[in-house]
């Protein structure tokens, strides 16, 4: 790859690295005080240390990492309540989008959501958690698109940067909560009941945040100190 082509691809690589590190921190895989080296991040993603280092500087500005003299990057303090707060912000916007989707869903979109829900149920029955995560993402994406609110969706992407994009299947209780909560969301959308859809979506996102926060606090309390 030429130097110009490599340079053009670096912003995407840096974004990918930042998303990876956020997920590792928010999911509790990396704990407050843990060292984060750009070389290790690059190796995990198959990229060079340069875009990984750029990502770590971005995460320092966002408050996910601290940069200490002679010690490098470390995971910044994070608590279960911090996680709940981030999910609560995401839940409020997601609820508004669901309310708007309830009024604007086309019959074709509703049919697609019904199909995705059945696929969710089938994936859970087979304990195919990777497929369950995939269908969950597709379900939420379609609801957000159906809302037809570009600026709100853009704001959701900002709060969504702090929501882990992986490891959901490893959160205790998440698969069961997803099936139950999605049933409520779909009922509200099917009935074209904006307030029911809003409440169901808001509760669903907040529920996921609470499950993750509990697991995060339990892991932090039970595991040895920072590596």
TrEMBL record:
Q: Which positions make up the signal peptide?
A: none
- One matching Pfam family is FCD
Question: Quick check: keyword Transcription regulation in the entry?
Answer: yes
Domain named HTH gntR-type is located at: 11-78
Q: Which domain of life is it from?
A: Bacteria
Q: What keywords were assigned to this record?
A: DNA-binding, Transcription, Transcription regulation
Matching PANTHER family:
GLUCONATE OPERON TRANSCRIPTIONAL REPRESSOR, TRANSCRIPTIONAL REGULATOR, GNTR FAMILY
Q: What is this protein called?
A: GntR family transcriptional regulator
**Source organism:** Nonomuraea corallina
């Amino acid at each position: 790859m030429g130097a110009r082509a490599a340079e053009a691809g670096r912003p995407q690589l840096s974004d990918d690295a930042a998303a990876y590190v956020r997920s590792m921190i928010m999911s509790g895989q990396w704990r407050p005080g843990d060292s984060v080296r750009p070389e290790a991040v690059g190796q995990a993603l198959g990229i060079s240390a340069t875009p990984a280092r750029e990502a770590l500087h971005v995460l320092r500005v966002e408050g996910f990492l601290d940069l200490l003299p002679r010690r490098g990057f470390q995971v910044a303090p994070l608590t279960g309540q911090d996680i709940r707060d981030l999910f609560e912000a995401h839940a409020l916007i997601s609820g508004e989008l669901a309310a708007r989707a309830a009024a604007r869903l086309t019959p074709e979109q509703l049919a697609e959501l019904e199909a995705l829900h059945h696929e969710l149920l089938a994936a859970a029955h087979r304990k195919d958690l990777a497929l369950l995560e995939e269908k969950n993402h597709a379900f939420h994406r379609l609801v957000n698109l159906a809302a037809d609110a570009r600026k709100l969706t853009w704001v959701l992407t900002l709060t969504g940067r702090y929501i882990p994009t992986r490891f959901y299947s490893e959160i205790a209780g998440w698969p069961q909560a997803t099936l139950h909560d999605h049933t409520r969301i779909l009922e509200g959308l099917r009935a074209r009941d904006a307030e029911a859809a809003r409440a169901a979506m808001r509760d669903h996102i907040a529920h996921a945040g609470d499950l993750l926060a509990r697991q995060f606090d339990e892991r932090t309390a039970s595991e040895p100190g920072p590596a």
